[in-house]
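Page 47, continued from p. 46.
Same chain as before, 165 aa.
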Amino acid sequence: MHVHPKSRRPLCLGLAALLTCALGLAPQPPAEQHLWEFVPASPTPDRPATRHAPWIIREQKIRLHQPTLETLRNPGQSIPSGIRLDLTDDTSREMIIDSKTPGALTTTVIQGHLGTLPHSDVTFVIKDSTVAGTIRMDRRVFRIQSIGNGEHLLVEIDPEKLPPD
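Result:
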């Protein structure tokens, strides 16, 4: 079949448009879901700096993403994948969920680990819109705790400085 040179241009444009549409409709990888985001510290020059216990390396206020939390909490939903935990400004890891089980008093217990890190574990207890838990990666330990009014704190702990039980 011979195509006249003047009809090649519309044909090429049509094929390019078709290819662009097909690529746009192709299945896309799931968007990253972050369980929380950092809340910027509000400047309060008249308030004295808070003294931390010697075993606290840093603490940061966080805001939970409620749709992601609901996916984790809801026992009827399957175990999600691709949830990221932002531990510091430059450390973000994917959480791999090993189990999601109902706990006492309408809680959900999440157990898992961080991506490909061999010495990591994650344990969260979720009740309504509140999370408490521990994240361990190698020698680093992070704790999530509720501080009331729907707010949470991410705390990095130095386990070697913790007082004995």
